[in-house]
Specification:
Length: 779
Amino acid sequence: MEKLKSIIPDRIKRTIEESGPEDLPSTCSTLLHWCLQTPLFHKILGELAGSDTALCGKNMEAALDFKRQGNSFFTKGDYASALHFYSKALRLAPIDAQDMEKNLVATLYVNRASSLYKMDRLVECLRDCNRAIVISPSYAKAWYRRGVANAALGNNHHATCDLKISGILEPSPSGKGHVERELKETRDKCRNKSSSVVHQDGRSQSCIDEKPKMKLNIVHTPTKGRGLTTEVDIPEATLVHTEQPYAMIILKRFRDTYCHYCFKELPVDVNPCPSCSIPVYCSQDCQLRAGGMFERNIPKSNSIHKSIPDELQKHIAEVIVTDRCKLDDNHFAEHRHECKGVNWPAVLPPDIVLAGRILCKAKHLADSFEHQIALDLAHNYAQTTPEDKLEFHIYAIVLLSCLQQSHDPKIQPDGVLIAQLVILISQIKVNSMAVVHMKSTDINVAPGESRAGGPSSSTLEQIRVGQAIYLSGSLFNHSCQPNVHAYFISRTLFVRSTKFVAAGCTLEISYGPQVGQWDLKDRQQRLHNDYSFECQCEGCVDLNLSDLVLNAFGCADRSCSGVVLEIGAAEYEKKRLRALQSSPNTSPSKQLQQHQTSRKEDIYYMACHMLTHESNQIKPGYCLNCGSHLDLEVAHIKMYEAEIPISRLQDAIDSEKLQINVLADAVRSFKLLKSVLHQYNKRIAEVLDILSQAFCLIGDLEAAIRYCKSSIEILEKLYAPDHIVIAYELWKLSSIQLAHGNSIYADSFKGVRLILSRYFGSQMEMILPQLESYTQQPC
Ligand SMILES: C[S@@+](CC[C@H](N)C(=O)[O-])C[C@H]1O[C@@H](n2cnc3c(N)ncnc32)[C@H](O)[C@@H]1O
């Protein structure tokens, strides 16, 4: 694509780079015309959408090769590796391929079920047996494996039925004898034990079904465009909005670990797309909802074997039907148009493939492209950088041409349609939400030091799994100090208030940057780069103490707790102060009063100074409190000197090869760092956290706890004590305390629950099931 971009004539490039939304039909038409006459464009198109270069289709030879490797590991007793290779084979096996007179996919499912059985993953084993049976209902081995797994689970009635069916279908006399013996054993067990049916999937729905109790209204704001409010007061932790995505896509790096439809972590028994080798799903249900070209008629159970008695025919019908979900008529299968094994859905960037999904959905809903395909959402095409404008044009033409070639020849790219697609891509840039899932990860503690005898310290992480468009959710504006929190369970967006919101106030989520995370300069630059707006939220307009100290140096006079800003931060603070001083609504003295009553801390005095002095008093390199000068160049040299041993320590932690002298050097450097940075500089909190991890690794949990607590003290000042980031840190602290056998872990953990319940309400335990195990730990 870069090569194509580089040969576009300058005159066309210039008109595109200078274009506004109204010029698009003409610029798109010009570029399309040039593309169609350019051999390189046709070559690229052939690679992306041509059937002879398609690399994402099924491949019988490769599937058989993986199957052989799976068999070889199974014979050696390495069931985990066998399972891995059977899964790889399933991803590549053509759905109707035959291998040794059996359906290859069904055979692979049964082979994988056998590995799962050996690994004691009985529920997953059952699911694989069902998948094999849906494809090949007369497959005796699949019924046999199902029967054995059901027997092990105590599902005695099901086990007996499965084994009876297997016995009838089994062609060889020795096989029949084997099944008979298993059936007898199961019957004996039935006589001795009462049967308890274990279901294959017991996911709780009730928490997902929570509905918001209020209506959101769209309002027009002077500085942020449309926004959302309610007519009623909203207490904290109230669910204000839920929504299903209009379109969604998984990010490339999570393709092998998360379900491409529901975005949950994949189980061991992954379900591949039946017609191409790209997506994998957690269940057949998700695979059917996502689409995929293969559609199979469910075989009639009574056609399977004439000699099977009626009650067993009923059992067969139940097994085949349980794995089928009901889809309503309007359901749009979002992967179907991508599913020809051609390369473009795997190669193009996720937001472009997402645009393809929206486009095909528009066509599915209206049965043509004649109506508007762009959505009723804001876009920033006019403010987009010249490079991005050119890129949007190229991708719009490439995507439409790929769809025309590999999906629907009726799609006719022209200037108007491409222009709409360019706007759609700009809308995706501004409105798509990062779909984030929570995950807890163990940190190793030195063997023997953990009370539980293993790795027991853990951290919470947010993982950005995908990208989605929510039509109403897109109307939430951004704030760096948001009053509502957006999160996801599977594909559903939930928005919950994290503080009291008075009726009529706008509800604002964070698009990423937050006070405490970055200072004013970094937040504004990030929002400008990603969304092309100058943030007008409270956190950016009003004075903010966290912004002052977050990246600040300390005063040259170490008895003064004042802050010294660098040039960039000082410029942004000056600009903010000037705007505040000229605004009649937010007079600095009024703000001062607010700070006086809310925060009686050292850094409060810096705020006083800023608010009562002229803005040109904010000079880089000078203490905002006492005016002392700090040589910023010398301070930087000291900082870099201190950072070298600290980054060496970080590397040692990452590689889990920590030597005591590396840790000792880092502790010394930390003292040097503290001597130049402001005491509430965020880097100090980060280094304290690194030291805590290091002490965890060498098993000095008391030191680890001390450093972790000091880090939290700083973060509480930067974010606020009830911010979700503090819950993550308290989670870490309580897990180290627990590993140390320290009963006060319960206090830290109470703090975690308190904060998380404001962010996730009653869904907290569903999002973080690990919470339950902490609650149940004995002190
Ligand atoms: C996802 S849309 C939000 C809805 C939008 N206001 C509308 O009218 O459709 C994002 C756009 O809203 C505006 N916006 C959102 N938050 C803002 C903020 N804090 N300050 C200024 N503009 C904001 C920007 O124009 C941004 O590109």
